[in-house]
Amino acid sequence: MASQEYVKLAQSLPPRLLRFFARYPPLTSSFANRAPPSSTSVSFNTSSSDPNASQDENAVSDSPPSLPYPNPFQTQKHPATGKWHNPIFSLRRQADLVKMARANGVEELLPYTTKGTEERIQRRVEHGLRVKGTGVGQKVKGKLWERTMKGRLEKRKQAMLGMPKLVQQWKQ
Q: What's the burial of 32, exposed, middle or buried (CB within 10 Å: 0-12/13-18/19+)?
């Protein structure tokens, strides 16, 4: 039953998302049960009399399961040369994929990206709008007429309230 729902969901996705998920399949339960390849090492020498053998060699780390492929949204460091390679998907293309995935309800299946909704909300909470004058107790500079408008309107209001008294004064 669940596999039929997945097939229906896959048929409703746009072609760009289908191609992305075909090339970079989402983390499924089969990958989640398996430990990441970098955190597990197999010891060929099972003898406990070897003083160089460590007891940590067969232990599986408790880190969250990683992807079976490098994250296409992040830079990668080449293991031999140490040179950094750009992400496969540019920030603009990442944002497009996230928007499409969000519209189709599969955003949580995408690998980690800074363009994700949760990351954007977290960044907005941490840094605010980052527009000068929008913080607590700050004022936006504005033009001269904008800065003085409040005072001028108040002055005009007081003058209008005092107008009947002034008219009476002039009639006498």
A: exposed
From CA 100, how far away is CA 96, in angstroms rounded? 6
For the question of whether the overall pTM of this predicted structure is more than 0.70, the answer is no
| Short-list 102, 133, 131, 130, CA closest to 115 | 102
Extract the residue ranges of the chain whose pLDDT is less than 70.
1, 28-65, 134-138
Q: What is the pLDDT of residues 81-120, one digit of tens each?
A: 999 999 999 999 999 999 999 999 999 999 999 999 999 9
Grouping H, G, I as helix, E, B as strand and the rest as coil, residue 123 is helix
List the beta bridge partners of residue 77.
84
CA–CA distance, 159 with 48 (Å, rounded to integer): 97
Name the token pair of 36: 């990441």
What is each CA distance from 5 to 8, 14, 17, 103, 154, in whole angstroms?
5, 16, 17, 18, 65
